[in-house]
Amino acid sequence: xxxxxxxxxxxxxxxxxxxxxxxxxxxxxxxxxxxxxxxxxxxxxxxxxxxxxxxxxxxxxxxxxxxxxxxxxxxxxxxxxxxxxxxxxxxxxxxxxxxxxxxxxxxxxxxxxxxxxxxxxxxxxxxxxxxxxxxxxxxxxxxxxxxxxxxxxxxxxxxxxxxxxxxxxxxxxxxxxxxxxxxxxxxxxxxxxxxxxxxxxxxxxxxxxxxxxxxxxxxxxxxxxxxxxxxxxxxxxxxxxxxxxxxxxxxxxxxxxxxxxxxxxxxxxxxxxxxxxxxxxxxxxxxxxxxxxxxxxxxxxxxxxxxxxxxxxxxxxxxxxxxxxxxxxxxxxxxxxxxxxxxxxxxxxxxxxxxxxxxxxxxxxxxxxxxxxxxxxx
Length: 378
Known about the structure:
- The protein is of the alpha+beta class.
- The protein has ten helices and 19 strands.
- Helix 1 (35-50) crosses helix 2.
């Protein structure tokens, strides 16, 4: 699966932006230009698939807090809008290309007339369409009412009206294979925006010895992820190379798990003393968690990293860049960074130049992006 196009309107510093995505997208820029808002918008798209969209907006302070804060024309409704274009191959469709577009719009509800609390974000509209010479709408929702096409192509209305907090994408199940596929794809995205490294961090404790194909969002199963690579997959070549590049002469030991799974690092300057997760520095532990996210046994189809350079010494950034490049061979990867050093290192590893996030007319924009959503350099 790949995300080929992203369209965001009305979200925080983003007035309206649409741009294509690559297998590896690196966004770099200074403070206050809106890099994290682009990242967060993707998390909200995932929330539409998992059913957490309106709750996630509420956690950010509510709809009034996340709406575009700049000038708005009198005719413009106070709305958020997210749209993604996807492309994948469905084996059941004899390898036919599957190019859906999903869009969702959120606005204020009216508790006097609708089943919604006074300040609750309300799903106003949704659609799922298939692109192509003869595009077709597979699902459409306006307010609480929604319809979808069944296996014969006929429209079917939902018998039960949707609540304001429910997305059709998360609520309609088992009736439309394409809708199920999109929901599954978006739900499987993984977002990593910093790991706790304090003494109570899950990273510092052994994890349960359960085979782990990918890293949890909080890194709690890191020991199991590394043990899965070592003892189930039997391949730690990329992992060992990353450790050696970051800490020349260091050795990573991953004992076969019993009840718990853990790991230890032995450094060249202290060759007889292995250091477990509870003893590692914050930066070293953060780096190991990023390796777990990027080099896992079965990575998710989409990995997003927000400022992964935080707490890392600059000497570790070339090794992180190489791990990101390896991950992009198996997954689509999105990186948001403050660090020109990391962005340059990724470009040297992959040949893919970063996109510069800027402010244009007071709104978040990408350098070189045209108003029609294409880059001037092609």
